[in-house]
Amino acid sequence: MALKIICGFGRAGIRESKVLGLSEEERQIKKFGHRDLDQRYKNFKNTYVGEKNELSLQDFGDSVKHVEKVLNSWSGSCRDEKTKFLEHFSLANWKKLSTARKAQHAMVGPCKACQLDHKTFWELYNKQIRCARVRTALSASSVHLNKANTVRDKRSEKRNLAQEIKSKIEAAQTKHNRDVATAYGIGDSLSGRRKRRLDEKFETREEADKRTAERKSLEGQGERTPKNRLGNFEAWAIFDRDQLKQEVEGYEDGADVNWTELAKKHKIRKRDREVPANVGQLLKLWLQKENVDTGRLKNQSAPVRVRRARIKVGGGTDITFPRKRTEREISKELSIMIRDGQVPIGEFVVPKTFRKYFLNRNTNRIETKTVTIEGRKLPLQQLREQLLQSQQPFMRDATNYDHMTKEQLTERLIKLGGYHKHKGDSEEAMRYHLQDIATRRTLMYWEDGATLANHGYILYLVATTYDPAVHLTDWEYHQKFHLHISVQSKVEQPKIYLIARCGSSDAEQMLYAETRRDDLPSLADPVMSPDGQAYTDTLRFFKGDNPARQSELGQQRGDYYPCVQCPVDIRGVRSFWESCHTEKPTSTIGDRQQFLLEGPVTCMKASSSLPDPFSQLTKEELQEELTSRGAVPYESVDTMSKKDLQQEMKRTLRGTKRMPTLLQPNPTQNITELNLQHLEAPGCECMHYPVLHCVEDVVR
């Protein structure tokens, strides 16, 4: 009865079926008259009933009687509701619906679309039904649907909430590019990060194989619809279809075919010119759909790889673990940060040209190409500013020494351990000294080389040394911030100054001497803290292992004079007198510069860019140098062989083979102008493992 057609559009369509297919004049005539039921049935079915809705003539007739009865007996006080019902479910509005939306309306049986999307207008008709049994049946259907909708809404709400939380977690992971800083800051490679990410977020290979086998079993039994892996390939793929089909059909049986290479040959790509990663698989599926027998050909494509699915959280939401950015996305984001200046990488220095060998896959031959690689250097002035900015929590507050009495000045000097040097100074001298040391930091270089991916690299770091006159002590920091930390370890954390692809030889490392020397005059310029305090910096130490310190000061590596501090012959270390009886136990850069400029030949050769310019001297040059220094008397120099002169030259130079690196290529430059007058290289590097434990053994 009334439940045959309960769709709002169907009920209004029954009324419209009398005039469907008629002209405007015929509509006015037939509007209130009668029309053949068979004709109305055909008109209604052609307009409203889809292929899936089977409506018999008898059911249509019963529905016509009920609908006309309800519409004709519509309560007079609710005429406005009748107009609203007919206008909302009119034929014009039905024609405006898309094919998919029309398919959601059921002309036979309960119409969920009306109960969900048009409930307000649909209920206007139900209120006019006088039969209580019919109204109860319609209400029961609505209640059942409402319950199902409530369960579905709760499930959807739960899923949306979980999805929102997941999205917030993913956004928090990438906020301020934390994941980029973590990926490049923990010392792990991107391949290591990828392995860890896949293990944490994806199922194991065994679980993937098991899941795939179960899915294929269900598809084979017909209990599950196979996935359409071809998708809308025909809609986006751009290529000559007929030509490709003819080429494949022309292959002989058993021919080797690489579907990926075939797709690249025919330039199959999307409309945005991008080539899908699985283009070979898609091409093969498309050919099979076009009834091309691909089974007769020998497949050279890669074996089928089982896809590892993401791990689901559970709880009935089907939500997977929050996604992390892939390594390619991380690398791309870093490039953007470098481009925008968020990650300062300094300036390019010392370009080098290399020959790179690679395998050309098209010709299957090894070919070469020339690449240019440059080092990166952060200007020293900018680096000093960054160090000061990062050390602000550990810096002392500015002190006005002009208002301190002599007793307070003395007490401060005693606390800093410098009173014995200024015990007899005047009050003004003590005040000037305190102001100077409170705003003067000490810098140190650190250099080392390493091999990465079969290529040598050189790294220079710059750090400040801890000074209680400039920085807080651990106790003072705790009193100020209520945290227990090692202030010295925080202050002395280095920053990268220069990194470049470079071998371990002096010849290669000296290529970076000039760009480093150009930064030294900027040490005379103070750097300003955020509170307006000016700080000056003194380059004081050069740290590194033995080869690094020897290269920096122009000392030979190994042999009998390896020490950068003393001129003692290593063969005499067993003799206490020979080890201790030296005229000058230690030498500075200024001493080395003066020593080499004293000799006529060494002075002339000092500006050479060769790593060891004194090793290839002629006999005449050896004679001139040794006699001018008084190492060999004039009367005996002509009787000595070149070999004897070379041995005497080694004893005279005592391991000095060239000018210190930072004085290249202008060895006569004033070291005070370069701010090198205080630079010193320690005799050993206590941070290295063997020396460290030797010192521990001596202390014990």
Low-confidence stretches: 689-695
Shape: elongated
Order the strands across the largest sheet as they lie in space: 3-4-7-6-5-9-8
* Structural class based on helices, strands and sheet pairing: alpha+beta
| Arithmetic mean of pLDDT | 83
Report the end-to-end length measured between terminal Cα atoms: 106 Å
Rg of Cα set: 45 Å
Strand content: 5-15%
Question: What can be said about this structure in brief?
Answer:
The chain has 700 residues and is an alpha+beta fold.
Secondary structure topology:
Blueprint: H1 8-16, H2 24-30, H3 37-48, H4 57-72, H5 79-88, H6 91-96, H7 99-103, H8 112-117, H9 119-126, H10 132-174, H11 178-185, H12 190-201, H13 205-220, H14 233-236, H15 241-249, E1 256-257, H16 259-265, H17 279-289, E2 298-299, H18 327-339, E3 347-360, E4 365-377, H19 380-390, H20 406-416, H21 427-438, E5 440-452, E6 455-464, H22 474-481, H23 487-491, E7 495-501, H24 506-509, H25 513-517, E8 527-528, E9 534-544, H26 546-553, H27 576-580, H28 589-598, H29 600-605, H30 619-629, H31 634-637, H32 642-653, H33 689-699
Parallel strand pairs: 1-2, 5-9
Antiparallel strand pairs: 3-4, 4-7, 5-6, 6-7, 8-9
